[in-house]
Amino acid sequence: METIIKQTLEGVVMLELIPRSEIIVTVHVLEADGSVLCAVLNAACLAMMDAGIAMTEMITSCSAGVVLQNIIQDLTHLEQSSGGAYLPVAVKARSEEILFLQLDSKISVDQLQEVLVAAIDGCKKMSNILEIAIKESMTQKMKEE
After folding, report:
1. How far apart are CA 61 and CA 41, in angstroms?
2. Using the 8-state DSSP alphabet, how is residue 82 labeled?
3. How many of the other CB atoms lie within 10 Å of CB of 110?
4. Non-local CB neighbours of 54 within 8 Å, separated by 6+ positions
């Protein structure tokens, strides 16, 4: 998971603005009920924005999968373990460029397309949530100053 987080964040962090610097992202998962990687990527992106790290775009991540022939978003642990397809995806929020995608199951190309569309739709929803959270945080910080 560490490599995935590092490579995904490197896709948006403007490292040229902070030469000879190191960014360390530490994550503690206190409780998990599925889609852990997606939650970690969203939390890391939000933390870096809150810290003022320059990024070209915000990262959003969401999973989608097939459970009992239904395509669903943001799978729980039980749904992930049901034996169906599970597809975590991370995208750049504005351009929707895929930074990370992992599929551990065999599914048809048509079904893969449908699951990918559902995951990207979930990323769009997450983008709205993260934007609201960072705006509220910045507003609160400005009031405190």
Report:
1. 6
2. T
3. 8
4. 13, 14, 17, 18
- The whole-angstrom separation of Cα 22 and Cα 2 is 15
Q: Give the span between the Cα atoms of 43 and 3, in whole angstroms.
A: 16
Calculate ∠ Cα 128-97-105, nearest 5°: 95
Q: What angle do CA 56, 60, 64 make, to 5 degrees?
A: 150
For 87-107, b/e burial (b = at least 16 CB within 10 A) is bbbbbbbeeeeebbeeeeeeb
The pTM assigned to this predicted structure is 0.91
DSSP-assigned states of every residue in 55-81: BSS-EEEEEEEEETTEEEES--HHHHT
* Tens digit of each residue's pLDDT (9 = 90 or more) over 11-38: 999 999 988 988 999 999 999 998 999 9
Identify the H or E element spanning 143. helix 109-144
